[in-house]
Amino acid sequence: MTDEDSILAANTAYYHAFSKADIVGMSAIWAEDDVSCIHPGWPVLIGGQNVLRSYGEIFRNPLQEPLEHQKHHVIATGDDGRVFCVEIVGGMALAATNWFKRINGAWRLIHHQASPIAAPIEENDIQPSPKQLN
Amino acid sequence: MTDEDSILAANTAYYHAFSKADIVGMSAIWAEDDVSCIHPGWPVLIGGQNVLRSYGEIFRNPLQEPLEHQKHHVIATGDDGRVFCVEIVGGMALAATNWFKRINGAWRLIHHQASPIAAPIEENDIQPSPKQLN
Fold it and tell me: Which residues pair with B82 in a beta bridge?
């Protein structure tokens, strides 16, 4: 299994915990220290307690729409792995960054940010330029 | 000078280049490899050429509003430095992430993402919880 595969598996686990409103699973996915999170429309949240509390609020929100994720792109560099994907929530497209760090052999989330996308997405938009393939 | 100071100086240089529409300065601030950027409303851009091209487009846009940055918070972990700040553009507040990596002794930008903030910002919102101070 390549690092890219392992990072994508961690990313899938994140969205699985989100879809199940599983705060225990979410707690296991996030790292314990040096974490940051910017939900759509929210200011930045720093620190594990603040971040997990925010997921608790989201999970308790009866109006929270289901979330789909697609169009994944991974940048793996040593013990860091960034996943970019498009989240679809309530018919809205969001550009999401999920930043994982390999800690004691496991990929743990250290940063999440999701931003509304104004324009339709073309697959070509997220491809690296030829000189940047690595 | 602490790492936090150096990272904040790199962050200031980024916004200085932005305010001057200085594409050469911007090119020196960004790392050459493994870079990613999500401008407000845009899908993710991967790779140095795509990212720098996007700044060229922004700098040539006659309707581009001036940008202020405030409320900085740094997470410095080894050779990584994340700066979170609030960008004010055209009366709109954005939660921005600027992720730097120390490469050959210099802090170079490897990721930028800015998201509109829906709610007013309180200073307390971005403080770490007591157990997360480090």
Answer: B75, B99
Reported confidence tier of residue A128, pLDDT bands at 50, 70, 90: low
- The domains found in chain B, sorted by start residue, are 3-117 (3.10.450.50)
Residue type, A8: L
Residue in B40, B50, B95 nearest the CB of A38: B95
Q: Is the ipTM of this complex over 0.90?
A: no
Distance from CA of B16 to the nearest CA of A (A): 23
CB A29 within 8 A of CB A13: yes
Which residues in chain B touch residue A103, judged by CB atoms under 8 angstroms apart?
A: none
Dump pLDDT digits (tens) for A57-105. 999 999 999 999 999 999 999 999 999 999 999 889 999 999 999 999 9
Q: What is the pTM of this model?
A: 0.89
- Contact flag A129-B49 (C-beta cutoff 8 Å): yes
Q: Where are the beta strands (DSSP E) in A3-105?
A: 36-38, 45-46, 67-77, 80-89, 92-103
To the nearest 5 percent, what fractions of chain B are helix, strand and coil? 35, 40, 30
> What is the SS3 assignment for A109?
strand
